[in-house]
């Protein structure tokens, strides 16, 4: 990045040194779609679980969401199931796993 900035500035200024400081990383994202209150693309700024992703999307649309059929589609094409209802009734029943960059949380309607 530093070299590209120096090259771009050379025609106008004699630049000998450039400092680049990353203040915020926003390239990693995940998506939540379906029967949630606010579907969308969210920044993955820290480690986040499936349950937290659903909460960020405003939670399930109670009357329409099939909470037992939620799945996470990973960027590599694999799919991981997540049973919201079962997890809430017994958190030890399944993993509330961490999302990865590019994941899509799919909450189908009932």
How would you explain this protein's 3D organization?
19% of the residues lie in helices and 20% in strands. A hairpin with a 5-residue loop joins strand 3 (70-73) and strand 4 (79-82). A five-stranded mixed beta sheet has the order 2-1-5-3-4, with helices on one face. The chain is built from three helices and five strands; from the N terminus they run αββαββαβ. With 110 residues, it is α+β, with helices and mostly antiparallel strands.
Which helices and strands, and how do they pair?
Layout: H1 2-9, E1 29-34, E2 40-43, H2 50-56, E3 70-73, E4 79-82, H3 84-89, E5 104-107
Parallel strand pairs: 1-5
Antiparallel strand pairs: 1-2, 3-4, 3-5
The tally of helices reads 3
Range of helix content: 10-25%
What overall geometry do the principal axes of the alpha carbons give? Answer: elongated
Using only CA atoms, what is the Rg?
Answer: 20 Å
Major sheet:
5 strands, mixed
Mean pLDDT across all residues, rounded? Answer: 88
Strand content: 15-25%
Structural class: alpha+beta
TL;DR?
With 110 residues, the protein is of the alpha+beta class. It is elongated. It contains 3 helices and 5 strands.
Descriptors for this entry?
single chain; 110 residues; alpha+beta; five-stranded mixed beta sheet; elongated
